[in-house]
Input
Amino acid sequence: MTELINGKGLSLVPKTDVKQGLKDFKSDQEVRWCPGCGDYAILAAVQSFLPELGLRRENIVFVSGIGCSSRFPYYLNTYGFHSIHGRAPAIATGLAASRPDLSVWVITGDGDALSIGGNHLIHALRRNVNLNILLFNNRIYGLTKGQYSPTSEVGKVTKSTPMGSLDKPFNPISLAIGAEASFVARTIDSDRKHLQSVLREATAHRGTSLVEIYQNCNIFNDNAFEQLKDPEVRDDITLRLEHGRPIVSASKAAVRGADGNIEVVPRESVSEERILVHDAHNPDPSVAFALSRLDEPAFEHVPIGIFRQVDRPAYDVLMAEQLEESVAQQGPGDLHELLQGGDTWRIG
Amino acid sequence: MTKQVRQLDRVIIRFAGDSGDGMQLTGDRFTAGTAEFGNDLSTLPNFPAEIRAPAGTLPGVSSFQLHFADHDILTPGDAPNVLVAMNPAALKANLGDLPRGADIIANTDEFTKRNLQKVGYDANPLEDDSLSEWRLHAVPLTSLTVKALENFDLSKKDAERSKNMFALGLLSWLYHRPTEQTIKFLEQKFAKKPDLAKANIAAFQAGWNYGETTESFSVSYEVKPAQLAPGVYRNISGNQALAYGLIAASVQAKLPLFLGSYPITPASDILHELSKHKRFGIRTFQAEDEIAGVGAALGAAFGGALGVTTTSGPGVALKSETIGLAVTTELPLIVVDVQRAGPSTGMPTKTEQTDLLMAMFGRNGESPVPIVAPMSPSDCFDAAVEAARIAVKYRTPVMLLSDGYLANGSEPWRLPEVSDLPDISQEFTTEPNGADGAFLPYQRDAETLARPWAVPGTAGLEHRIGGIEKADGTGNISYDPDNHDLMVRTRAAKIAGIDVPDLDVDDPDGEAKVLVLGWGSTYGPIAAAVRRIRRAGGKVAQAHLRHLNPLPANTGEVLKRYDKVLLPEINLGQLALLLRARYLVDVISYNRVRGLPFKAEELAGVIQDVIDSD
Output
């Protein structure tokens, strides 16, 4: 570990020559989510994606908090740590900061990451700890049986809000960009191809990758993202974000309006050159932030894909560099010398 | 003029001034000179939580007490022989502690009408005979300092700021302290501002010369070096010793240290100290909050580091859920609680022993945690190594209960030889332990009941742990009632079975009927009180607990050996509650919760009363 280089993605994680398949990443534990839960699709997508990385399985760790999604680590045959509510980013930070040879994943939900663990999430993002954070957003509390969450829409009627919720929801993408995140993306449980393409980019990114995954809770908040799945409308409302490509859906396009704001207009109403070209690598986060606001008020058009992907040194590498610098300047630590340092005197 | 020199066996000095007057630095430097000279010593800083409370007010008073002697001593002393009062507030706040006949050195320049009014003096006590029972030395410290520095290109304000060095010079003359170290220190401290270095040194020397020439001081004092055990010594505070102990633990455990911490008084100095020693492979992580501090330490422990978090009581309250997670995931973790006065924010800079029951029980569920408590500033070193030994060997979080008195107090420390430190290393598990190459993360060592510590990166041992109850052996999620009962009892048995040394009893002739028992930082005052009793011909035994959980195996037997057991604590009887419950012994509690350590004289009186009572 002392020969660290500022590697990209998972370049510090040992690779295997052994060919891996989906079954190598399945644990022997019975999966226990409600039938029809979006988590099954995400689990299957992750299990079938991991072999592609070619990493030694023992160098992969999944850390989670509390909530339905946080059971995830039990179902993967890697190292796993199912921790406590909201704290997964903190625990994963200690692990990733001290072990650059690990691929560390955080599995969390909208309540876990944005309510009780909000502080840890934003600080992990600003530090750029080498983590892949998968935020399963179903806009409801599932494990506690159906209270509104910090991403529930205003007026949500739930067990704890019989007259409707009063709280303005968080937009996880806006929040992450505001917290100085270096990689921010959104995908959806039902689109395995897109989900895996985002994971591919997220794992290639060194630093914190925040991936919001729209996930359906069919028990307490069914069809929350139905428009994005309905073949009748989904292609019209889904704005694909691909670096270097125009930001469009089947029928709409993002343009810069007369007031400088980004707006979505019918595609045929504007010429090709007026359509905004997506630049995920823009050092200035303001356009990415503006794009993250396009799904307001309610799913008229929803950007999907990678909002932001900029290079910034990862926390573990910076930390290791300070250690190496200290050794280079002062030599390796010597306990005898340390204890005998300072003003000493001898008796006898 | 040749001045008289008088021999003393011990002296207690208290420097007191405004929190901006540099009293802590003055005390530190006098201590360094005293240590270099070879006296035994003990110190007690006492300062407000406010960085700069309004100038000249009582809440803004900061003080530093130093006890030094030609023999070994145990406490910073009860009552000062000398008070250096830099302003009226410092005089007023400290006069009550000063025995009649003690010396007062007062800075007359600050005894202005306005400053006197600020603290409620109607008349100037330096002039109205109200201090006639003390030996008053009225010295215009500020103006003498300004005059001594008139040839320096300094603003009046900068010149005035050197008055603490003038006072240090005067006291150094008065007690024959060596000066070289202080001059060297000032040169280093102001290396980038050589003018300030020269000015401070000039003020220091002017103070010395003033003592030599003025008629205010007709006598100076000598305190001969103490005959301590042979060895190399350095003066060390509890927080520094604790930090060094953690570094030593990392070396002796052959594990990289990871500190996750959030700044909090009076524990922050451990974070500061450890952050200076990265060349030992130490990672220090200043977290976003207390919870993240302990969480990151636990995450690092999962990855094979020696995980440590440092805090004070309010921080422990926030960390308790994560400590519970460490209990159930059975990972090594050291939680340092530098106790301070509570509840809530309490009095952050004042000391207390009020977190014992929180350390024992302050978590949901049955979640036993071993507790180690150092008994002196230098013992913080050994206690840290011991806490790490237990954490690593038994795979458990360990509470290390220091307190504000130990943290900021200092004493000479006879340096250990590195070769004498215990090897506390344990092997990671690298091979499957079950049938057919299976790995059972909760299959225990038969002797210690510790589970295997298999870290990520170890092929074939991939496993999942977490906060949900686990099946014995496999560690899979289990809601089975009998399994839960077994796991609760097994976790308790593991902690109860930790190997801790027997409780030593100091009972010189075996005739004592009364045992004084203590734990943690009360060791010094209790031992000093016991000496007083014995010098007066009384019989009393003393024992001091370093391990609070589990208690030494012979604790019950020791308690029952004596007619009476007296237990002084700086709380309302927390250890007494545990001992009464566990051993059915009618422990006599003595409790004061004033944010200050006990005084030896006070405890001697209490012990005598218990001896005398029927």
